[in-house]
Hints:
The chain is 35% helix and 18% strand. The protein is an alpha/beta fold. The radius of gyration is 20 Å and the shape is globular.
Amino acid sequence: MPRVLAVDPKEPQPEVIREAARVLAGGGLVAFPTETVYGLGARGLRPEEVARIFVAKGRPTAHPLILHVTDVAMARTLAASFTPEASRLASRFWPGPLTLVVPRAAQVPDGATGGLPSVGLRAPAHPVALALIAAVGEPLAAPSANAHLHVSPTTAAHVVRSLGDRVDLVLDGGPSARGIESTVLDVTGPVPTVLRPGAVSLEALRAVVPAVRWAETTIGDPETKRASPGLAAKHYAPRTRVELAPSVEVGARLSRALDEGLTVAAITWSDEATKAVRALAPRVARAISMPSDGEGYAAALFAALHDADAAEVGLLVVEAVPDDATWWAVRDRLARAAHA
Length: 340
Ligand code: TXA
Ligand code: MG
């Protein structure tokens, strides 16, 4: 069990931030809350410290990390160039859930970027994260604070369960408000390109830079993997086998699995599917009913997947979600979770 310190998510106690900064300055790893998910932080410009993140997560060293900054001024010190589009996007969305992939400056170590010539930068919209970066006085490298390929953590308890003693200190600032990771946008080329759908919608990006491109890739597409080695298909997956089912088929799919002798869990959002699950009630080991709006659903999604996993069932049936803008990132994560 790692050390856990409670911290006020709105007005972080200076002594807690000082203690976390001290652990980082000693070369330790600190998990901290952001508005998207919890991050596993180390000082981002120090290769031996960054290397510890990969060991703790069991993550391949070729997967690039995001460097977290306080503001655009700090970001510019890490970028070889910052285009006018990048500036416009940063001033509109930072601090917030947008990661900009830019050409990296010489001071950014290979270890932080998996050897790529670019680096991902983001200023998180969370008082604890911002206070911690400011106290350290340097950017913090931080992937999501989960073991490699597991579901991202939206609470301190998820971090403790996934990483245990491999993290030196966990700052517990309560549940993450957005609950889904940042949108990753590559602005190194002439056309800004989405590498990962996330908490900033495609429409919001296009309102600032109309040319933003998003190729709805088949999950597992080799082209995506080349552009962003961390985006392998199997990410964001619970341990349990997941199947997506259209709303009208959730009940039938569960019944069939039960007839085959499987234990089952279900995640639904519509009245129709929730009722179908209820009709099977005691035979469904975990029935999770979610908010029916995209943002509310996103905020609850990873906790639901952690919860369903804990039930250790043979099959998790997840009701498919609507095909519109506010569900963009949720659809992406569910498709990955269901990817065999
Ligand atoms: O919301 C978030 O982004 C959270 C919080 C902690 O900030 N962080 C996060 O980090 O999700 P991680 O490492 O789990 O995911 C970062 C994603 C990976 O898919 C990685 O491949 C991509 O961003 N990425 C980072 N730097 C990149 C680069 N230079 N080029 C291409 N993709 C990059
Ligand atoms: Mg991750």
